[in-house]
Amino acid sequence: MTDQRLRQATTLATRREQGVALMLAVLLLITVSGLALSTMQKVASDGAVAGFQNQEEMAFYAAEAGIADAREAVRAMGDRDEVPTYPADFPNAANPVLISTPGDFETGQQPIYFADPNATNPLGPIAYIGEGAMCTDGCNITINGTRYNHTKWKINVIGQSPSGDQKRLEVVATRLLSTDYH
Question: Structural domain tally of the chain?
Fold first, then answer.
């Protein structure tokens, strides 16, 4: 009798263990599924953040291209009281410069730059703001008796990405001009 009871007890214990194993397998499956879902959500949100960062960088680089163009406009000016005309000498918001071709982007829109219409300088987004300090250690040049000095020009430009993100840059550039200017 003892053997029979032992067999019944063993059979009953085995059946209970089979139920526990099934329950543990289901709990493990739910846990792994939850981890997979959270990983997919993290990857999707990281992709969106990277896309926003790319748009901001694109706007910044467009503004840098505008600064380079504005420095060329400053080099082309003859006197300190001369300022560029917009959009003939430098683009304004109504006539921005397109940096690439429309086919480079799916939407056909592209990065642009233009003079900042909200520049704090009353003379405009590109303007003469003063002379550099006179010095004798090689920073000034004399050619045929005419002395030249570094002049300071304030440049305000906006770069815009295809998604509309904007970056404003304000730079002080220098240019050599004659000190005999009156």
Answer: 1
Give CA–CA dist 149/79, Å, rounded: 13
Closest to 161 in 3D by CA, of 117, 115, 96 = 96
pLDDT in tens, 51-93: 677 888 889 999 999 899 888 888 887 777 777 777 677 788 8
Rounded Cα–Cα distance for residues 36 and 139 (Å): 64
Cis, peptide link before residue 87, omega less than 30° from 0: yes
**Which amino acid is present at 79?**
D
Provide the domain limits for residue 102.
2-178
CA pair distance 91, 77, nearest whole angstrom? 16
Q: Cβ(148)–Cβ(174) under 8 Å?
A: no
- Check residue 182 and give its pLDDT: 42
What stretches in the chain show pLDDT beneath 50?
182
- Tokens found for residue 162: 């295809």
Beta-bridge partner residues of 174: 152
* Cβ-contact 71, 65 below 8 angstroms: no
DSSP annotation of 89: T
Cβ contacts of 19 within 8 Å, gap of 6 or more: none
